[in-house]
Amino acid sequence: MKTDNFQRPIISLRISITNRCNIQCFYCHHDGIIPKKYEMTPQEIERIAKIAKNIGIEKIRLSGGEPLLRKDIVDITSRISSLNFKDVAITTNGTLLEKYAAQLKEAGLNRVNVSFDTLNPETYRFITKSNYVDHVKKGIIKAVEVGLYPVKVNMVVMRDLNHNEVWDMFQFCKDNGVILQIIELLKAESCPDDDFFDDYHYDIGIIEDELTKKATNIKTRAFMQDRKKYFLEGGEIEVVRPMDNTEFCKNCTRLRITPDGKLKPCLLRNDNLVDLMEPLRQGASDETLEGLFTQAILNRTPFYGKC
Ligand code: SAM
Predict the structure, then answer these.
(1) Residue ranges per structural domain of the chain
(2) Which of 25, 70, 233, 244 has a 20 to 30 Å separation from 305 between CA atoms?
């Protein structure tokens, strides 16, 4: 296992396999737009995953853009699963999950996070400019049914948009055997202008206070940015608060890859990427590629505060 200059072990890799998306969340921190023709092939993704395994990565998450838009998503998943990582997961908007859940399970996927900010069709339309509430619900239910365990719902909480809906979403999750993960809105370079943040940022500390009062048990997830998990009323809520959170950075064990094959040491920075794809396509050896991983790991500095 490799460690960065701040004694943080690097054990997880988030591979963005496309920038394309079929919904348009207005707050999305997507990493620029690259044309489809520059996306990594399944073979290239597999090679990168093998190198990642060699340097001690234990967990892979496929993301995007919307990963299920790739027609070869089952092939990609199966190639990665065959490398025996401790965990292979996907983050998806859930719109195509009903169609793919069983095939992905069969291909070796362990679990899935579904981004779903609201049950209200009007609010959903406002956030995503689309009408997929029922598709997403069906996708979530199907994922549970085929045993992609645990299924988690990612809900970005936004002021006066869905902050009053957290308990309804929690009820939906409990009813369907799903864990709710509430996420504080993040301001990133690639987000829209500052107004969006001022308008919609909601301090989820307010919800955490309520959770603390109601919970029968609270756990902190080491190696997962010290996220808190609250157990209450027969269900589970996890809280993700990255903004200005030095603990979040201190406990970050993740490296990322952009859809065109650049190692990205931090979600919030684009000035320290390391290109893997050009060398890989030029026939670089495993040792050279491992060296590039090391370089990216050494480029890691905490975005918020010092470790
Ligand atoms: N298309 C997939 C999906 O919808 O899950 C994967 C990509 S999406 C960018 C990954 C996650 O990032 C989603 O859960 C989304 O809600 C979250 N996200 C995007 N922009 C964000 C922001 N500004 N603040 C907090 N979370 C954000």
Answers:
(1) 1-149+246-307, 152-242
(2) 25
Q: Lowest mean pLDDT of 9-18, 154-163, 183-192, 265-274, name the range.
A: 183-192
- Identify which of 130, 114, 121 has the alpha carbon closest to the alpha carbon of residue 25: 130
The first and second tokens of residue 19, run together, are 């920038």
At 224 the pLDDT is 59
Question: 63, 69, 153: which to mutate for ligand 1, most atoms within 8 A of CB?
Answer: 63
Q: 236, 234, 296: which is closest to 269 by C-alpha? A: 296
Ligand 1 residue neighbourhood (C-beta within 6 Å): 21, 27-30, 63-66, 91-93, 115, 154, 156, 183, 185-186, 188, 191
Q: Which CATH architecture has domain 1-149+246-307?
A: Alpha-Beta Barrel (3.20)
What's the Rg (C-alpha) of the chain? 19
Residue 232 has pLDDT above 70, yes or no: yes
CA of 29 to the centre of ligand 1 (A): 7
Determine the residue type at 165: E
46: which 2 tokens? 């597999």
The whole-number pLDDT of residue 233 equals 95
Tokens of 147: 């045993």
